[in-house]
Amino acid sequence: MGIRYYKPVTPGRRGASVSDFAEITDRKKQPEKSLTVRLTRTGGRNHHGKITVRHRGGGHRKIYRIIDFKRRLDDVEMKVTHIEYDPNRSARIALLEYDCPESGKLVKVYILAPNGLKAGDTVSNGANAEPTVGNCLPMSKIPQGTEIHNIEMQPGRGGQLVRSAGNYAVLNASEKGWAQVTLPSGEVRRLPSDCRATIGVVSNADHSKVVLGKAGRTRWKGRRPHVRGTVMNPVAHPMGGGEGRNSGGRHPCSPTGKLAKGGNTRKRRKPSSKAIIRRRRSRRYGQKKL
């Protein structure tokens, strides 16, 4: 994996970059038809037609790939046949195939591809699996200090944490039915040790280095232009209005008043707060913690 740069033949190409897709097994391969579904695009609107999420709309057509985040089929060796591109996420995905122990038929499934996983490798799930790249184990069976991703928060619910490109968490300890994990944000969190996690670092670590180069590439992603609140009228935004160029007269916020730069928005009495051992690092010096 790496970054490819173009010759600056146009202003949009100057400074723009793309992934080189070196880890993709077959660039011309279509996604597995049985593992795809078409999603209805809403453009950020709810069932009343009212915009509830701003700056959404347009974009290139995408077919959703069904990813197995649960990885609950134990003690079955699965062979990696392809590493594929997924337009719905920043990471690459791996296509696995295995013989179903019940029906005896060949079954295919998609998982998140970690760094180092390639076509021809085998992966497995369960407590008896080896703690090697691509295998999914309960955290009680994973050695301390191991880099993990796709972490469950409740046993059987499926991986919810650490799923984007280049990310990984570190398993600090596992004892007395609880596992302690350091997340990419710096937060140290306690999770049930029966929760599963996948060994390794999520693939496509260079995703954050890609420079779009022009506004059109943002539109291809389905993101519409963002208008600053200070240039709006008072009826449209809390920071709107004023004679001349006003800075807003208040802390930056959304149209609904939600603070935009580090204000506390987490509920003070949220039950899961007791699972947080150490808060994530503050983005602003002196920011208050809940």
Automatic annotation (TrEMBL):
Any Gene Ontology CC annotation: large ribosomal subunit
Gene Ontology BP term (one): cytoplasmic translation
Comp. bias regions, Basic residues: 264-290
Pfam families associated with the record: Ribosomal_L2_C, Ribosomal_L2_N
Function: One of the primary rRNA binding proteins. Required for association of the 30S and 50S subunits to form the 70S ribosome, for tRNA binding and peptide bond formation. It has been suggested to have peptidyltransferase activity; this is somewhat controversial. Makes several contacts with the 16S rRNA in the 70S ribosome.
Assembly behavior: Part of the 50S ribosomal subunit. Forms a bridge to the 30S subunit in the 70S ribosome.
NCBIfam families named in the record: rplB_bact
Protein name (record): Large ribosomal subunit protein uL2
Organism: Thalassoglobus polymorphus
Encoding gene, per UniProt annotation: rplB
